[in-house]
Each structure stands twice: as structure tokens, then as C-alpha cells.
Write a structure and sequence with these properties.
heterodimer; A: alpha/beta; Rossmann fold; 2 domains; 8-stranded mixed sheet; 11 helices; 15% strand; elongated; B: mainly alpha; 3 helices; binds adenosine-5'-triphosphate; binds magnesium ion
Chain lengths: 335, 77
């Protein structure tokens, strides 16, 4: 067997492996460094899954959305139909946490109005606005939006593919469910202690009982803890897979290795690796030299452990926007 | 005049009341963090706990040794 034939047989094996790995997931997160091709690859993957007869939603979690640009259609906070390949369906959505944040604020305001005397309403509202502007609040609202989209799997969609923001943001977001579970547990432990002291006091002298608001507060904390724990399970039980996109240069490969290590710490499955924009080795001196550099970098810093689907996508001359190009990328990644 | 029972239980009750208050104060501090200038990464979720604390806010900041309301917009004193 000629070496080139061997290489391509290997490559097509990897593509089939990637497809198989993705077909078992209900959610797929596509992530990597800024500009490596996350948006392009996530739509390509989503299209390939839809072409296998699935109902797929591609959801952008990057506040700098570019899903609409890629498809050359207008996409917003509610899903729109993007393509219907071979009996499947592909929908797209650009998640906007602002609306979620506002609904949340309105609900908290209603509780405040119910619980606080009239004279405190104004102060409480101003306080609430401060909390809404906290940097973490937008991120939490995005987490809530991701959780609600994830809930659509099994009903409206078979698979949700997330086109995520550059690495750091996404890792933070994915670590939130576990950290917030811990946060809720600490608050609940604090309420438990307070309650025990209160109960001990009451047993010394028959005293007053715990008031209603306290039990409402505890119920709220319990509900939150359950929800955070469920979100954590959703991303770590193997039903979710992460596709890490990189380019074959030394610095991006080093950052990619950190991402892979961090996913392992978080307990999120690496479903596959895509090395994007590979320089062709057979055309022109410049690209040939680039290709050799990339080969050396990949040999030094292998982007995937043996057993993890590893797929390459060549550097392409065309403008990669519009349904036709996305379908083509999809089959290049999985066919 | 104190009953015998009260005389016996009094000191324990005081210490339990203090322990409970310490827990409650810590809770208040965590929930009001963002408004007090302590960055709170969970502000989205703490804000829904705020209504349950406002009533006790004045007593809390006095206990914390802050004589005037530390929240500009809460003129409780
Ligand atoms: N294999 C490729 N060949 C040529 N151009 C590519 C290839 N993959 C992606 N591009 C182009 O590179 C640019 C960046 O791609 P894309 O928007 O998918 O990256 P991204 O990782 O989502 O970026 P961001 O971090 O800004 O969200 C786009 O113009 C895209 O068309
Ligand atoms: Mg993008």
C-alpha cells in the first residue's frame, strides 16, 4: 500500500470515528482559541448530523455571535430553520442572556414587592439593579439559557451543538455548575446551623417558631442546588462531548493542550479534535514550507491522545459562508 | 421576678442566640456582598435571596460595627 493511500485510509477512519462519537451525544460543545474556526466547524458538524436524519440545533453562546453571518441569514434568540438535509433538520439560535436576566430581575422584584414594606421598595430595586450589573450576572444568565436549550434535547431536538466563546470564557462557564453547587451547599449548611441553634433555644424555653420566609428561602436554595447538580451531570455523564478546534502551530497547540487538560479536570468528554486550516503540502514553495512546519509541530505536540478522533481540515481558498459551503465542511469533517 | 427555669436556661439561651446570630450575619454578608463592594460571582442567584434579608438589614449593619447604613440607597438610619 502506498503511504499516501495509507494516510487517507487512516484519515477517513478518523472522520468516521468522529461521526460515531458525535452521534452518541445529545449535546456537543465546540471550543478553542479565538479565530481557529469554532463557528465554521460547529455548523459543519451540526449539518453532518442533520444529514444523518437528525433534528439538530446549533446554538451560539459567544456574545460576539457570528452564526448569522456564517449562514448569511438573520438569527436571533429564538431558533430559526437553517437547512433540511436528507430528512433531517438544522435550526440555529444566537443565545442572548439579556432577556433571561431581565425575566429573572422581574421575578425577584415581584418577590420583593410581596415581602417588603412599601417604603423599602425603591431601595430594594436600586440594590437589585446593582446586582444585575455584576460581571458574573451575564454569565449566569447565559448558563441558564444553555440549560434551557439543553432541556430541548429528547423533545424538539436530538442534538444541540454549541458554538462557544474562546477557551477561557467557555471553561469558566462549564465550571460554574459545580462551583455553584458548592456555593448553594455552603449557604444551606449555614441555614442548617442557624436552624439548629434556634431549635435548641426553643427546647430550653418554649419559644417562637421559625417564620415562613425562612422556609421559603431554604426551598429556593434546595431547588437551586438540584438544578446546578443536574447541569453538572448533563455535562459530565458522557451525554455531552467537547470538540476542540485548533490550528497546527506551536502556540495554539500549547493552548489546545491546556484546554484538553482542563476538560479532563472538569470531567467533560473530549469527543474529538479538529486541526483546522492545514496547509497543503503539494502546492507551491510557501505552503509546502508551512505544511512541513505544521507536521513538525504536530509531531512534537500531538493534539489528541490515541483513541480520540482526530480530523484535519485543509486551508481553503473559498469564502466559507452560506449553506453550500457549510454542507461541504460537514462532509469533509465526517465523510 | 425570674422563674427558676429562666434563671437556669438564660445563659445557654444567650449563647445559642449569639451562635445563631453569627450564622445569620454571615449569610447576610454573603448575600449582600455585591452591593457592599465585595465582588460576588453568584450575584444572579444571591439577588433572589435579598428580599428575605432586607427586614433585618439595620440591626445587621449595627452589629457589624458599621454605625450608618453602608448601602447608599438604603437609608435605614
Ligand atoms: N479551513 C479553513 N480554510 C479557510 N478559511 C477558514 C477555514 N476555517 C475557518 N476559516 C475562516 O476563518 C475565519 C474564522 O473562522 P470562524 O469564525 O469559524 O472562527 P471562530 O473560532 O468561530 O472565531 P471566533 O473566536 O472569533 O468566534 C472565518 O472567516 C472563516 O471563514
Ligand atoms: Mg465564532
Amino acid at each position: 500500500m502506498a503511504p499516501s493511500h495509507g494516510d487517507s485510509a487512516l484519515a477517513s477512519g478518523s472522520r468516521r470515528m468522529l461521526l460515531t462519537s458525535l452521534e452518541t451525544r445529545s449535546t456537543v460543545y465546540v471550543g478553542g482559541k479565538g479565530g481557529v474556526g469554532k463557528t465554521t466547524v460547529s455548523s459543519g458538524i451540526a449539518h453532518a448530523l442533520a444529514a444523518r436524519g437528525r433534528r439538530v440545533l446549533v446554538a451560539s453562546t459567544d456574545p460576539a455571535h457570528s452564526l448569522g453571518h456564517l449562514w448569511r441569514v438573520s438569527v436571533g434568540d429564538s431558533p430559526v430553520l437553517l437547512a433540511q438535509p436528507q430528512g433531517g433538520e438544522l435550526h440555529g439560535v444566537e443565545l442572548d442572556p439579556q432577556a433571561t436576566l431581565e425575566r429573572h430581575l422581574a421575578a425577584v422584584r415581584a418577590t420583593m414587592d410581596r415581602m417588603l414594606p412599601e417604603r423599602m421598595h425603591k431601595a430594594a430595586r436600586e440594590h437589585l439593579d446593582l446586582a444585575a450589573q455584576a460581571p458574573g450576572s451575564h454569565e449566569s444568565a447565559m448558563l441558564e439559557r444553555i440549560a434551557s436549550v439543553t432541556e430541548l434535547t429528547g423533545t424538539e431536538f436530538d442534538t444541540v451543538v454549541f458554538d462557544t466563546a474562546p477557551t477561557g470564557h467557555t471553561l469558566r462557564l462549564l465550571s460554574l455548575p459545580e462551583r455553584l453547587t458548592g456555593w448553594t451547599e455552603r449557604l444551606l449548611a449555614n441555614r442548617d446551623k442557624s436552624e439548629r441553634y434556634q431549635a435548641a433555644m426553643s427546647s430550653l424555653v418554649t419559644g417562637r417558631h421559625r417564620d415562613e420566609p425562612e422556609s421559603e428561602l431554604r426551598q429556593m436554595l434546595h431547588r437551586r442546588r438540584q438544578r446546578f447538580a443536574a447541569m453538572h451531570t448533563d455535562i459530565t455523564d458522557g451525554s455531552a462531548g467537547f470538540v476542540a478546534v485548533t490550528v497546527a502551530e506551536r502556540l495554539p497547540l500549547a493552548e489546545h493542550a491546556e484546554l484538553v487538560a482542563e476538560l479532563d479536570v472538569l470531567g467533560i468528554d473530549l469527543a474529538g479534535v479538529v486541526v483546522n486550516r492545514r496547509a497543503p503540502s503539494e502546492s507551491g514553495a510557501l505552503l509546502k514550507a508551512r505544511s512541513a512546519l505544521e507536521e513538525a509541530a504536530l509531531a512534537d505536540q500531538p493534539p489528541a491522545a490515541p483513541g480520540t478522533p482526530l480530523v484535519s481540515l485543509p486551508l481553503m481558498a473559498e469564502d466559507l459562508t452560506g449553506a453550500e459551503q457549510i454542507a461541504r465542511i460537514g462532509s469533509m469533517l465526517t465523510g | 421576678m425570674k422563674t427558676l427555669e429562666e434563671a437556669y436556661a438564660g445563659p445557654y439561651r444567650q449563647s445559642l442566640a449569639r451562635d445563631r446570630r453569627d450564622e445569620d450575619d454571615l449569610f447576610t454578608l454573603v448575600v449582600l456582598g455585591e452591593a457592599l463592594g465585595v465582588p460576588d460571582p453568584a450575584a444572579y442567584y444571591t439577588m433572589e435571596l435579598m428580599p428575605y434579608l432586607y427586614q433585618d438589614f439595620h440591626a445587621w449593619h449595627r452589629r457589624m460595627g458599621i454605625p450608618r447604613s453602608p448601602l447608599d440607597h438604603v437609608a435605614c438610619c
